[in-house]
């Protein structure tokens, strides 16, 4: 378009192109400068943000690692403490088991030792007679023997002694018949049992029991004597009774008779046989023998 045809105030194309070229150039340069600045600022911000973000990430990672390490350390500490506590519990259990076993061992030892002591204390009085020169074992009297003894003491009264009374059967039976009965026994267990039995049957006032050796007791005060002897002791006991008993005494022997005396009465059969000896007979025999000896050997 020609410039002459344009209204006033408008520029022609050539004028615009000529006049606008520097403008567009300046605009492009300006845009380029602004773009470089923005890019630089953006890059700067990006670098700044990247550095901050990296720093933050590293900080977070370090913090997380620190927390992990702390947690691991705490966990390991707890694990170690748990293991230590478990070991302490195991040691305590082992100590308790050992203590329990030791206590059981002591208890069993005490029970066994106490049982042996009791057995020894109980058995010794029953076994020691076998070690003596004259053995007088404990053999309980049968019911038939007790009846035969009481039959031989019928119509008699006064005091009675049982030599080697054992469990006290003869003494208690005689006390029930009205005798003032006494029993001598070397075994303390049998004496204590006899006393208890007499008390239980209400005969403790008329039935007495003593722990003593028959060879150390004088029988001169008794008018009735009962003895369950053995052959080895009968000769010595025969001599002792001859010296100590009065002329109105009676001796009842069970199981074995006296070797030199002649019995006045006999009753029973087999092991239940009893022999009754009146002191008048064996005292008279002793006097007769003495007179015969004096006549044969005058002074």
Automatic annotation (TrEMBL):
SUPFAM superfamilies for this protein: S-adenosyl-L-methionine-dependent methyltransferases
Transmembrane regions listed in the UniProt entry: 104-127
Molecular functions (GO terms): protein-lysine N-methyltransferase activity
Location relative to the cell: Mitochondrion membrane
GO terms classed as biological process: methylation; positive regulation of sensory perception of pain; regulation of mitochondrial ATP synthesis coupled proton transport
Domain of life: Eukaryota
UniProt-listed InterPro entries: FAM173A/B, SAM-dependent_MTases_sf
GO cellular component, one term: mitochondrial membrane
Topology class, membrane: Single-pass membrane protein
Keyword annotations from UniProtKB, A to Z: Membrane, Methyltransferase, Mitochondrion, S-adenosyl-L-methionine, Transferase, Transmembrane, Transmembrane helix
PANTHER family: ATP SYNTHASE SUBUNIT C LYSINE N-METHYLTRANSFERASE, METHYLTRANSFERASE DOMAIN-CONTAINING PROTEIN
Membership in a protein family: Belongs to the ANT/ATPSC lysine N-methyltransferase family.
Protein name in the entry: ATP synthase subunit C lysine N-methyltransferase
């Amino acid at each position: 378009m020609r410039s002459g045809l344009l209204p006033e105030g408008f520029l022609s194309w050539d004028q615009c192109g000529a006049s606008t070229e520097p403008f567009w150039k300046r605009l492009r340069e300006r845009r380029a400068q602004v773009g470089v600045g923005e890019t630089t600022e953006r890059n700067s911000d990006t670098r700044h943000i990247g550095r901050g973000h990296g720093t933050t990430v590293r900080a977070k990672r370090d913090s997380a690692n620190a927390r992990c390490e702390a947690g691991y350390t705490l966990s390991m500490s707890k694990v170690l403490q748990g293991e230590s506590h478990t070991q302490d519990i195991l040691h305590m259990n082992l100590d308790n088991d050992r203590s329990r076993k030791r206590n059981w061992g002591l208890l069993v030892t005490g029970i066994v030792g106490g049982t042996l002591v009791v057995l020894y204390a109980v058995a010794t009085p029953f076994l020691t007679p076998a070690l003596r020169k004259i053995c007088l074992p404990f053999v309980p009297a049968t019911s038939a023997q007790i009846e035969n003894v009481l039959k031989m003491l019928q119509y008699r009264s006064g005091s009675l002694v049982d030599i080697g009374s054992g469990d006290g059967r003869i003494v208690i039976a005689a006390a029930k018949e009205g005798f003032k009965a006494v029993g001598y026994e070397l075994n303390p267990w049998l004496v204590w049992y006899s006393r208890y039995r007499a008390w239980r049957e209400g005969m403790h006032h008329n039935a007495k029991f003593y722990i003593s050796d028959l060879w150390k007791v004088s029988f001169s005060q008794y008018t009735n004597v009962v003895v369950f002897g053995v052959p080895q002791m009968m000769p010595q006991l025969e001599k002792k009774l001859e010296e100590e008993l009065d002329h109105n005494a009676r001796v009842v022997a069970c199981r074995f008779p006296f070797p030199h005396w002649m019995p006045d009465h006999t009753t029973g059969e087999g092991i239940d046989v009893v022999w009754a000896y009146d002191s008048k007979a064996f005292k008279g025999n002793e006097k007769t023998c003495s007179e015969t000896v004096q006549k044969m050997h005058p002074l």
